[in-house]
Write a structure and sequence with these properties.
The complex is a heterodimer of chains A (190) and B (297). By secondary structure, chain A is an alpha+beta fold. Chain A is built from five helices and eight strands; from the N terminus they run ααβαββαβββββα. In chain A, helix 3 packs antiparallel against helix 4. Helices cover 65% and strands 6% of the residues of chain B. Chain B has ten helices and four strands. Classes of the chains: A alpha+beta (190), B mainly alpha (297).
């Protein structure tokens, strides 16, 4: 079928496994025990906003839904590449609640047929000495990777590889290092 | 299963399939006829197929050399790389190499034998003219060409057409000297058949090329979710294209099939020999995609 698809110019969207997000709280415990990293309580979903009313309506709806619980308001921002970030905040120790919110955003986009527009979801961590770390979920791959930005658009590769070893048992990790996308200026990181 | 708006266009797929089928039938018939008619031409067929293979295998190097493009690193072109990084993550495809051609001609092309060996090239002219969103639309169109393996498809589609063209141009010299085995009349029949095959395969490959372009437009528009940005980019590029004097463009002629918009305006026989669909048709399709995206599920 792959050959036929190539012949006919078809590209099929990949199915994502959103349940993998619920493995993040376990990974957070491991990061705290093994690396001294504490959750910042900030997480975000990055997606490509589509043109048209259907997307705008859905985007407003999901924000209202998440704000209905009375917690910190969900923020929306657009980065320099034209991608939208929906930023969720919770108390630092409430990682499960944060992940549930991220899952809701992902699920809503998917249910409205905008699954292909999802790029990634990201949860922030910080070490006592001030280093930041993002655990990024790649929607299209169904895998995670660590992203440790440093000032001046550089990455702390040593830390990223160390974290990969730490959380390997908790979450499915992206094996292709070429897909460890840099997310400069991601909300809650750096 | 998750619902998706990423639907394939049945009509487009059907038309593409029909053209592909006609090409395959034409080539099988032509190949069988050649083997039946002359052994020496069968050897020629192998040589031409080998040439076509080389053209496909080295397509990235040849295209970059022809355009005098240079591959750029993420440090040299951070914005361009960042854009392609994200589009590739969105489309879940390996990242192609990125090249920039130093020419004012506003255009972009993708080439390479497989998605793992692909190159996406933009000209400095297009970087200067388009804003970020439009450039992203153009890049997603090129990435769709890579994902759809259009270089391989078009090489296969045109390979035997090349042989027919080869016989049409040079066949009489070779055939004329070989009078021992029944002589020139038999060869003239081969020559006439070759002319016919060449003409038909030319029209069919051009039709296939136009369908691949429409398909890439559609995939690209769904990828970025902004069909209007691609439409606006196409309008800008085409407007600029028509104004540029044609003598400056002769060097670019061999690259025409892989450009996002053809660099050279050909006198069109009702659009039959164009490698790209007319602008109105592309804009119309993008408008349909835009309407589909705006509708609630």
């Amino acid at each position: 079928m792959k050959f036929l698809d190539a012949l006919m110019g078809r590209t099929k969207p990949v199915k994502a496994n959103l349940d993998a997000l619920f493995a993040i709280p376990q990974a957070a415990l491991t990061l705290q025990a093994g690396g001294g990293f504490l959750p910042t309580g900030v997480g975000a979903v990055c997606y490509r906003a589509n043109e048209g009313a259907a997307f705008a309506t859905m985007q407003t709806d999901v924000q209202q839904l998440l704000d209905a619980d009375g917690g910190p308001a969900v923020e929306r921002s657009t980065d320099s590449y034209g991608f939208t970030w929906l930023v969720c905040r919770q108390e630092p120790d409430q990682v499960s609640e944060l992940v549930t919110e991220l899952h809701t955003v992902n699920r809503t986009l998917e249910d409205n047929g905008f699954g292909p527009s999802l790029l990634c979801s990201q949860v922030g961590f910080r070490s006592p000495d001030g280093r930041t770390l993002g655990l990024v979920y790649l929607y299209k791959r169904g895998t995670f990777y660590p992203f440790a930005p440093q000032p001046g658009e550089r990455r702390d590769n040593a830390l990223e590889l160390q974290v990969r070893g730490l959380v390997a048992g908790d979450v499915p990790l992206e094996s292709d290092l070429g897909r460890w996308l840099a997310l400069w200026g991601a909300p809650g990181l750096g | 299963m998750a619902r998706t708006r990423f639907k394939s266009d049945r009509g487009l797929t059907a038309r593409m399939g029909l053209v592909g089928f006609l090409l395959a039938a034409l080539y099988l018939g032509f190949g069988a006829y050649l083997v039946y008619a002359s052994n020496s031409i069968a050897v020629g067929a192998i040589i031409v197929v080998a040439l076509a293979w080389g053209q496909w295998y080295f397509s990235d190097k040849m295209a970059l050399a022809a355009m005098r493009a240079r591959v750029v690193t993420p440090e040299q072109a951070p914005e361009l790389h960042g854009m392609i990084d994200r589009l590739c993550a969105l489309a879940d495809m390996p990242k192609p190499r990125v090249a920039i051609a130093d020419t004012d001609l506003p255009n972009a092309f993708a080439t390479g034998r497989s998605p793992d060996h692909a190159v996406v090239c933009v000209t400095t002219g297009i970087l200067r003219r388009l804003d970020a969103e439009e450039l992203e639309g153009v890049l997603s169109h090129e990435l769709a060409h890579v994902a759809n393996r259009d270089v391989a498809v078009m090489t296969v589609a045109s390979a035997l057409g090349l042989l027919a063209g080869f016989i049409t141009r040079w066949g009489l010299y070779f055939g004329g000297g070989n009078r021992d085995r029944g002589g020139a009349p038999a060869f003239i029949v081969i020559w006439l058949v070759s002319i016919l095959v060449y003409a038909i395969s030319f029209l069919l490959t051009r039709a296939l090329s136009r369908y691949r372009e429409l398909s890439a437009d559609r995939c690209g528009a769904f990828l970025t979710g902004k069909p209007s940005a691609l439409a606006s980019a196409l309008t800008k590029i085409s407007g600029d294209m028509a104004r540029i004097p044609s003598r400056d463009l002769r060097a670019a002629e061999s690259m025409n099939a892989f450009f996002i918009a053809p660099a050279i305006r050909t006198a069109s026989l009702g659009g039959l020999i164009d490698s790209h669909p007319p602008l109105e048709k592309r804009l119309e399709q993008l408008a349909r995609v835009s309407a589909e995206l705006g509708r609630p599920l």
